[in-house]
Amino acid sequence: MRSIILSVGTELLFGQITNTNSVYLSQQLNALGIDVMYHFTVGDNPKRVEETLKLALENSDIVITTGGLGPTQDDLTKEIVAKVMENELVLHKQSLEHIEHFFNRLKRVMTDNNIKQAYLPERAIVFENDAGTAPGFALESKGKIVVCLPGPPREMTHMFQKKVLSYLEKKSNSVIHYKMIRLFGIGESALEDALKDIISSQTDPTIATYAKEGEVAIRVTSKRKNRKEADEAVSDMIEKIRERIGEFIYSFEDEDLVHVVAKKLIERNISFSCAESCTGGLFAASLTEIPGISSVFDRGIVTYSNHAKIEELNVSEETIEKFGAVSFETALEMVEGLRAITDSRLCISVTGVAGPNGGTEEKPVGHVNMCAILDGEKVCNEYKVRAVNRNWNRNYTVLLMLNMINKLIRD
Amino acid sequence: MRSIILSVGTELLFGQITNTNSVYLSQQLNALGIDVMYHFTVGDNPKRVEETLKLALENSDIVITTGGLGPTQDDLTKEIVAKVMENELVLHKQSLEHIEHFFNRLKRVMTDNNIKQAYLPERAIVFENDAGTAPGFALESKGKIVVCLPGPPREMTHMFQKKVLSYLEKKSNSVIHYKMIRLFGIGESALEDALKDIISSQTDPTIATYAKEGEVAIRVTSKRKNRKEADEAVSDMIEKIRERIGEFIYSFEDEDLVHVVAKKLIERNISFSCAESCTGGLFAASLTEIPGISSVFDRGIVTYSNHAKIEELNVSEETIEKFGAVSFETALEMVEGLRAITDSRLCISVTGVAGPNGGTEEKPVGHVNMCAILDGEKVCNEYKVRAVNRNWNRNYTVLLMLNMINKLIRD
Questions:
Q1: Which has the closest alpha carbon to B119: B63, B76, B86, B160?
Q2: Which CATH number does the domain housing residue B75 bear?
């Protein structure tokens, strides 16, 4: 099946918002084995929406629209889809009740505009909106399908996962199952190299790799007659991948590194503290993003100046003078100093050259030293981070710290 | 003039990257007074690129393409544009020299593929690529214009600013000048309310408002016969806006709050330290993102546990028991404790309920207390942040801290 994603909304053409809906839908449709031929974006202009919809229908089997389902006069997607697909809009009672319920719950007054949202094409397969008021729907006619989804990304993705996915699975007479594995410490090209023969001979399951800010993900997708077959095919392939590059895999459940580490720390009740220099608080900030972390996080000391390293962590002035603030020795004294002032089971320290300035031949931008102590066990690592820019260097250094902790508490 | 943005690249249709180029170009074109009619995205497929380009030319005066200018076989934009615009590709000597120079500088070997990048339509107006190898160009024929830009956002935006902007200004026989003002502490709807009469009667300069993660921006744009007139029109309008809502403006130069504050701290050599609870290191992490901050940032203490507040900052156990860890009293003792251990001129503390749990009726999620001392002058503030989610609450709290510092060191 060939699909086209049609985004409706003048705010997109003004550049006021980024079209993340097309990214999400493209990923989902490709995983379903549905080719995405084009993305079209058009403003809230009835004539142009109609022309573009017709053009999209001529060039694909299924058109997915987002936006233009709201209560205002600008919102015209539904009316135009009904017209093009030769169907009438009628009041959909269940949707009206759902909208009334939504307003009652929020104790807000419902206006006449909102009733407009409950009018849907007569033959539509309706998708209830659990995260908002505008229902979505699919409409089939003459071998073509139009799926209309709300514009707000939270409502759209929720509806897609809960309602549209199974509808599309049925359309393709097969079941799709996929799993996303996450890896750290291996680049995308090294990854493709390691799996080259599997990727090139892939039919089902298919393998797609994604790289994002230092982390890499593999999506394994199988499309089979029934759920059991698809599940097994995906599991077998993941086992094959694990045999080759298992050491780099940190999640089989599509969780990012900070969530994986935070979860382990909380579940195993490992109290922790950190001493940061080059990351300037970013390590603490990353972990404290996770709800519930307060049960295990004691304190973080950001010792940016040498002065602070000496006063807060008892790093000796001689060590800094002799080996430098960025050195194995300083990182070690930082973690030991931290260990002395907190009873946290896990202590970690980091010092490095974030850039763009401050690099030397011996210790260029991207040079990082880190140490961790977990229940008396000590690990120290040194890295040369590929120096992209200050932001990247700091983010990647935090990933290195998280990865070090993850390995340390693995078993 | 009507324009269409045509993005070329199969990776976009796979959802592997987000189309930020279209957002940027839409903002720029609208600011130039050029209407954006559609965004089209197509894969690296010669037939479909050609069809879409023709369609775009039929429906606009100017088509801006991004992507497909690289050295590989997939990169076909240039060839197709030349064909559709009935022009031959010829070797552009200057571009070849530029590419050779680029490779020499990086000490990398240049392959034959790269020479392909120096072939350009004979009548093209060439835009040199200061940030990469693929040159961009504009090609005019039969009253239509095609502008081809490289796909990597950094190269594209750089080329647009340095080369394409002045080209488009000349095309529209006028000069466009705009300024972006940044505000904090006023919502987008309150802002529109305050400027309602100006916005509704706007012809030139035009005013557009943008909201992004708690901050608001206003773009004032004027399109006149010459630079002087445009400059003056923009300045006059900004003065009008300043008279009404000047107290909320923190930048007339389109800088965000953290840059404005970091710059002031560095320029005025104000040493600073921070004590964070609910933001968990995010305040320190935000400021240390700015290069050069190490000249003034001494230390940050992330006291997440009560224990840490007592031990690191000398907050009294009684204060926490009596008033709570989130209270005016605790925030005050935190900043005073911090002041006692560092000789920083500026000390700031924060404590609050980040959520999703931990809120009470008296102190719900989003309740924040913060205190700052600058050269002996003390300020304490209490806020109820609109509790969207943990991430938002933390980010907004950091903005509140930055805003507090900005006001404190304003004069």
A1: B76
A2: 3.40.980.10
> Which of B20, B30, B37, B38 is the mutation pick for testing A, counting most A CBs within 10 A?
B38
Considering only CB atoms, B302 lies closest to which of A12, A55, A284, namely: A284
The CATH number for B182's domain is 3.30.70.2860
A22 interface with B at CB cutoff 8 Å: yes
Distance from the B90 Cα atom to the nearest Cα atom in chain A, whole angstroms: 31
pLDDT tens-digit map of B174-226: 777 889 899 999 887 788 889 988 888 878 898 887 777 778 889 898 888 88
| Residue of B302, B358, B391 lying closest to A289 (CB–CB) | B391
| Strand runs labelled E in B16-155 | 35-42, 62-66, 89-91, 119-121, 125-127, 136-141, 144-149
Last residue of some domain: A140, A171, A202? A171
- State how many domains chain A has: 3
Phi, psi of A142 (to 5 degrees): 50, 45
Tokens representing A81 are 């889809």
Contact B356/A at CB under 8 A: yes
Both B377 and B343 in one domain: the answer is yes
Task: Supply the ipTM of this predicted assembly.
Answer: 0.80
| CB–CB contact B284 A294 (8 Å) | no
A164 and A53 in a single domain? The answer is: yes
Asked whether residue A205 falls in the same domain as residue A130, the answer is no
| Cβ contacts of A289 on chain B, cutoff 8 Å | 280, 390-391, 394
Whether residues B245 and B263 fall in one domain? no
Q: In degrees rounded to 5, what are phi and psi of residue B14?
A: -85, -10
Joined tokens for residue A261: 């580490």
Q: B14 and A22 in contact by Cβ < 8 A?
A: no
For residues B296-312, give the mean pLDDT: 97
- In chain B, residues with a C-beta closer than 8 Å to the C-beta of A307 are 298
User: Same structural domain for residues B118 and B185?
Assistant: no
Judgement on whether residues B157 and B66 belong to the same structural domain of the protein:
yes
Range of the domain at A163: 2-171
Same-domain pairing of A267 and A399: yes
Q: Give, in degrees to the nearest 5, the angle at Cα A365 between A361 and A369.
A: 95
Supply the pLDDT for residue B260: 96
Closest among B125, B166, B165 to B146, alpha carbons compared: B125
Residues A20 and A91 in one domain: yes
Question: What residues 210-229 of chain B have any CB closer than 8 A to a CB of chain A?
Answer: 210
Q: Which residues of chain A have pLDDT under 70?
A: 411
pTM above the 0.90 mark?
no
**β strands within A122-214, DSSP E:** 125-127, 136-141, 144-149, 175-184, 206-212
